[in-house]
Amino acid sequence: MPRRAFQLAAWMSILTAGFHLLGHFSGPQPPANDTERQIWELVTTYRYQVPGGQRTLWEFQLGFSLTFSIFLALWGLLGLAVWRHAADNLALRRSVTLASALGALLMLAVSLRYFFVAPTACLGLVALGYVVALVSEWRARA
CA distances (Å), 31 to each of 11, 25, 37, 39, 122, in order? Predict the structure, then answer.
């Protein structure tokens, strides 16, 4: 049970990264009214002076969006690698499962506060899988 729950969470993390990339590369919705057009104009053209150059809010958004997907995919892949190659290392598995469960719960909390339903649902499944894996791992080996 711990292995399956952990693998489900890892694969959900990878799938969430894929879904996020689809949204990222599909681009923004067109402005619906004059207010949104004005905001979009400022977000994409107003440049902030930052160390190393100038950036718009849209450039920051694009960078963080790609980073989010890369992080989720890497997190899932690393988890799968640990469970595949450290099947006999209980201490490593427990540590990785604990860190993943805590990280997923923190990401879920951020998502509940700042994101919308689709990423929150995906991150909720990731968190649920890691928490189930953690509880199952501790119960099975206690």
Answer: 35, 17, 5, 9, 27
CA distance to 38, 64, 72, 116, 136, per residue, from 97 (Å): 46, 25, 15, 26, 10
Q: Which two tokens stand for residue 86?
A: 């450290």
φ/ψ of residue 89, rounded to 5? -100, 85
Q: Is the pLDDT score of 74 beyond 90?
A: yes
DSSP letter assigned to residue 52: T
Cα–Cα distance for residue pair 83/137, rounded to 1 Å: 12
DSSP secondary structure code for residue 49 in this structure: E
Whole-angstrom Cα distance, residue 121 to residue 22? 16
Distance (Å, whole) CA 111 – CA 107: 6
Q: How many angstroms separate the CA atoms of 54 and 62, rounded?
A: 15
Tokens of 40: 């979009």
Residue in this structure with the two tokens 């489900």, named with its chain if needed: 8
Give the pLDDT band of residue 97 (cuts 50, 70, 90): very high
